[in-house]
Amino acid sequence: MKKTCSPPESKPTDAGLADTVACDSDICFIDGKEGRLVYRGYDALELAEKSSFEEVAYLLWYGCLPRETEFNAFLDGLRASMALPTETVMILRMFPKTATPMEVIRTAVSSLGHWDPDSGNTGLSASLRKAQRLTLRIPLLIAAHQRLREGLEPIQPIPGHGIAYNFLYTLQGKAPDPLVEQAFDTALILHADHELNASTFAARVTAATLSDIYSSVTSAIGALKGPLHGGANMEVMQLIEEIGRPELAEKIILEKLANKIKIPGFGHRVYRCEDPRVNMIRELVRSLSSAMGDSNNFAITQEIERVVLEQTKVFPNVDLYTASLYSAMGLPPELFTPIFAISRTVGWTSHIMEQWGNNRLIRPRAEYIGPTDLHYVSIEERSR
Ligand SMILES: CC(=O)SCCNC(=O)CCNC(=O)[C@H](O)C(C)(C)COP(=O)(O)OP(=O)(O)OC[C@H]1O[C@@H](n2cnc3c(N)ncnc32)[C@H](O)[C@@H]1OP(=O)(O)O
Ligand SMILES: O=C([O-])CC(=O)C(=O)O
Fold this sequence. Notes:
- Helix content is 56%, strand content 3%.
- By secondary structure, it is an all-alpha fold.
- It has two domains: 38-225 and 335-357, Citrate Synthase, domain 1 (Orthogonal Bundle), CATH 1.10.580; 232-328, CATH 1.10.230.10.
- The chain has a three-stranded antiparallel β-sheet with strand order 1-2-3.
- Helix 1 (44-50) packs antiparallel against helix 8 and helix 6 (124-149) packs parallel to helix 7 (163-172).
- It starts with 27 loop residues before the first strand and ends with a helix.
- The model has no long low-confidence stretch (mean pLDDT 95).
- Bound molecules: acetyl coenzyme *A and oxaloacetate ion (OAA).
- Pathway: Carbohydrate metabolism; tricarboxylic acid cycle; isocitrate from oxaloacetate: step 1/2.
- One of its GO terms (biological process) is carbohydrate metabolic process.
- The active site is at residues 268, 319.
- Belongs to the citrate synthase family.
């Protein structure tokens, strides 16, 4: 009798759903051939250059850019939500020292739902308020947990300052350098949405069961954590640290490629050219590293890029230079993926609300490739 199950012999028809269009959406457009990224009709690079993360959040949530009075009212509403519930800070104190920041935000974001004043209200206005609370509170939660890990007490954000400023301030305990704040705000804009990436799809699948926004965002955080998706930015930093000096990059990368190891920060399901965000982030790192007087990580990243491009047809993605950008800001690598979650929360929640606007349960089929005619044999007989 056969004792083990045999592995599947053929691949599903559309592995990874690479060729499947799963929904209509007017939030984000990607041209993977030409390398273009558009939020609600506006080029994301133009928004990154001229706008602010708060304005882009308004655009993604409401579908248009605000007039001045609308934006001021929106910012006033945001300020009112800019604090963590005391119960959440108590929960943060209870995590074991070994819990990574990404594991902590997965659990703590889920817990935030219990203290949301709109808990149980599933209307559109309540969902928008929840989306805004999540976007304001996730950075505070990441900063508070990091301070607790370092043996420091969490500190309150300063009303009147934006999300980028207050994340850096509540993390580092001092007003951020304006150059760093500006670069961080730009990075938040460039990560805010990306169509049906894995974490957004996870959020939409959960939302499509008519589950709540906190459950949907928690699903998304779980998907973002993996190294094939958001977790890649931390892996890029680990690779930079492993390499240590630019002149060692070529040897280490060639060895990895020879061993068929995928290099984090390269490859993308949609882009068949350089990810349009890469150049803007590359230039931000170049100027920030030089202003901070340490360009070693930038130089290593450039070497990694040169060798991978010489050896493969695989282009860099958004994560490649993000690692040395955040490192030039003095941020620890284990916060890189949680930072991705700060900006993508805007995209996730926009998609969740869009899903609810025209909902149908998301439930694809599997191509069954196992047997169908087996008969039950008792455990005694099977064990003979
Ligand atoms: C924000 C984001 O989520 S961006 C993506 C972040 N993830 C990473 O940076 C992790 C490294 N990259 C990867 O693992 C992949 O490129 C993914 C997961 C992003 C995309 O995967 P897929 O769309 O399934 O592409 P797939 O894995 O089939 O790659 C296509 C080809 O490019 C090669 N390739 C893809 N990525 C890489 C890489 N990072 N390093 C080396 N080769 C690569 C593959 O080996 C494959 O080559 P082959 O056709 O000769 O077998
Ligand atoms: O779109 C994807 O597959 C990955 C992603 O989230 C991004 O590139 O920002």
